[in-house]
Amino acid sequence: MKKKLRIGVLFGGRSGEHEISLLSAASILQAIDRKRYEVVPIAITQQGHWLSGPEAQRLLHSPEPPALLSPAHEVETDVEFAISAAVLRSGEPLNIPPLPPHPHLPETIDLSASAEIAHPGSSLTASLDVVFPVLHGTFGEDGTIQGLFELADIAYIGSGVLGSAAAMDKDAMKRLFAAAGLPQTPYLTLLRSEWRADPKRATRLIEKALAYPLFVKPANLGSSVGISKVKARGELAAAIDLAATFDRKLVIEQGVGGPGAKPRELEVSILGNDRPEASVVGEIIPNREFYDYESKYADSPASPSVPIIPARLTKSEAKQVREMALAAFRACDCAGLARVDFLMEPAAKGSKTGGKKSGPRIFVNEINTMPGFTSISMYPKLWQATSLSYKKLIGRLIDLAVERHREKQQTRFSKT
């Protein structure tokens, strides 16, 4: 009988997306094929403490859910996580099989800067074949935890240190997109120290380079936290001050389509390592002016954000978006999985070439290396529409992690 792979599902974390990670992990633990895999839940509390075994599972049962998450309605969208949120808020038991006893696996991992898992000879490291780091945002999606796995020589799902860090930093990401020739909306980067030293000069630089409306973002953060849409100069300072509370580096982007325009928001899921594949294209119609944190996670039963899968595009537009998504994935040296987001000019817009009006322009917006992963999140739903079920998707990601780790073993790190 073939030996089961032992999979560590790592969730929680210190970022502001801690609760979203719990929702993703709960879905994975429910869906993973127990005939093929032995699962070890590993949790990181918001204070940074590491837990495994029963203590980790208890974190899934008793989190303090954020005020914005609620169980209200059953619209199956990426933005609401309605099913998982309802389970967490109501306290109903999750159908997660108990962890079988393991003689060498501690229940509480006192890592002290994660030294336990970073030690290749530790009991935890030796017991795991693959880690699935279901960590969203800072300290989980930015290359930090990936560096830890590299030190420990553990196979793990998702992008490596470079891909994770580059995709998390919107400034670095945009530079890589530009080097790959991918179309982007005009933008500039501003340091918090530059803004605080001379806000008038910074405002002049922004208005010289870009036209309103603008989007002001922290360079390193996820789930649209700290992002504001700015329609005129009077709103700019407050937006920059807000973003500057979340990061020392800010990205200011020019809106797509001009004043009063609402661009289409498209998404593509990518799966693979050196030969990645793209899913069908999906579209999100936000219930607010743009796809911000409230639009993603707030309870809005009267007018929820709506996913459209597949997006209503021409064959040539869909092909263009999927090719751009693959190019973005390669530009950031990503691996395993990612979701690439795009902005498309409204239908009324478009450019003229040779006197003829061409179709609306499409811009790559960003790449997310560990997107929301509940069964109703956009990433798995796009693959489901491309003929890969949620359970099989999890298995495929594990296979890709093993493949990448084996490929790394072919690399020499010393002369001897």
Helices and strands, with pairings:
Layout: E1 5-12, H1 18-31, E2 37-44, E3 50-52, H2 53-61, H3 82-90, E4 108-109, H4 115-118, H5 123-127, E5 130-134, H6 144-152, E6 155-156, H7 161-168, H8 170-179, E7 187-191, H9 192-197, H10 199-209, E8 214-218, E9 228-230, H11 236-244, E10 249-254, E11 264-272, E12 277-285, H12 293-297, E13 306-308, H13 315-331, E14 336-344, E15 352-353, E16 356-357, E17 362-368, H14 378-385, H15 390-408
Parallel strand pairs: 1-2, 1-5, 5-6
Antiparallel strand pairs: 2-3, 3-4, 7-10, 8-9, 8-10, 11-12, 11-14, 12-13, 14-17, 15-16
Structure explained in plain terms:
- With 416 residues, the chain is an alpha+beta fold.
- The chain has 15 helices and 17 strands.
- The protein has helices at residues 18-31, 53-61, 82-90, 115-118, 123-127, 144-152, 161-168, 170-179, 192-197, 199-209, 236-244, 293-297, 315-331, 378-385, 390-408, and strands at 5-12, 37-44, 50-52, 108-109, 130-134, 155-156, 187-191, 214-218, 228-230, 249-254, 264-272, 277-285, 306-308, 336-344, 352-353, 356-357, 362-368.
- The strands form four sheets. It has a six-stranded mixed beta sheet with strand order 4-3-2-1-5-6, with helices on both faces. A five-stranded antiparallel beta sheet has the order 13-12-11-14-17. A four-stranded antiparallel beta sheet has the order 7-10-8-9.
- The radius of gyration is 22 Å and the shape is globular.
- The chain starts with a strand and ends in an 8-residue tail after the last helix.
